[in-house]
Amino acid sequence: MAIRFRHEQSVEYGVARTISPLIRRVVAKNPSPFTYHGTGTYLIGRGEVAVVDPGPAIGEHVDALLAALAGERITHQLITHTHLDHSPAARLVAERTGAPTLGFGPHGAGRHERGATVEAGADLAFVPDVRVGPGDVIEGAGWSVEAVHTPGHCSNHLCFQVREERILLTGDHVMGWSTSVISPPDGDMGAYLASLELLLTRDDRMYLPTHGPAIEDPRPFVRSFIEHRQEREAQIVDCMERGVDRIREMVPTMYAGLPAFLHLAAARSVFAHVLHMMDRGVVRCEDEQPGLEARYRLAR
Ligand SMILES: [Zn+2]
Question: Scanning 46, 245, 256, 291, which has the fewest C-beta atoms within 10 Å of its C-beta?
Fold first, then answer.
């Protein structure tokens, strides 16, 4: 089953647009192959407002957020996860408003094993003022938000449900324009799939991802993402059966037509699949360390 991606022709940067009675969005001007048109910062409530993912450390974006909220007060900064396009502006907003940050924890906080890993793209400096866990409810003036822990893209990834509107802010866990990059070690395919299954048990009416447009009728969309990953796994099995046993060699056959500059990101996702298959005893690594250059084979 093909994923029916949702696109957005264009966006106006730095301007608050009303999405629902309780939610507005301001898009930061950081477009890229990984951020689509840019980071969408959501504003929840009126008068006393929660800012969700203040975004990259771009002064113009912070200026735009504060201008959009002139006469209002930021009471909370909610952080979906610690990537550089999501959390760094929180420090700038805090310096100018004193608004506290709420998140699952610092980068890597949701990982089971210990050991610091330095990752390109991670905001390693971020520490939330208040730690939020699954099921926690944050109350504001005329709004309330439930935190939903959805590790996978990032181990500390949270989605936030605006309860009054049954709208789930999905961060980078589920996006309309693209699949999520799952890059080990902090990215975890098994956790990601479990976090997709978790969304199927919920009754959210609509998703608002950080990048790209709203997703209405979201559950069939989530199912198509799960099926897409099952198809990727079947492709990996097929590669191994044909003797294509290194990840770098799998990528060009699995991702026909993908521009070469995205091959490394794709390889990281294949690696995440392979590790998930090793966890389940489906695949064995033939070399000492699993990695992009290691050889793998089916464990049967
Ligand atoms: Zn992002």
Answer: 256
